[in-house]
Amino acid sequence: MLLVIAAAALLAATEPTSSSAPPTPTEAANANLAAAPALKPGEKKMKVVCRTETATGTRFGKRVCLSLDDFKRRQEESREGFAEMQRNHNVTPTKGN
Predict the structure, then answer these.
(1) What percent of the chain has pLDDT over 90?
(2) Which of 16, 46, 56, 81 could form a disulfide with 67 if both were Cys (CB 3.0 to 4.6 A apart)?
């Protein structure tokens, strides 16, 4: 028991170095933007937005960083897919048991 407490105190006393910590999602997105090629004359800069999306059945979110156009495209594809499922649903009534 005393050994466990001593090990916990030792671990708490050691501070992790900032170089070994993984970058946050925002830092990673900023690094990707910095590494992006230069814009050509007349091109618009794409705005990147980060959102936390949670999957069904879990409380944990996943950070997703995409452009606004990509988020709109994903939303429209989801809407079209759901509408397709509703159109293809079998509405023929059954004859019972």
Answers:
(1) 34
(2) 46
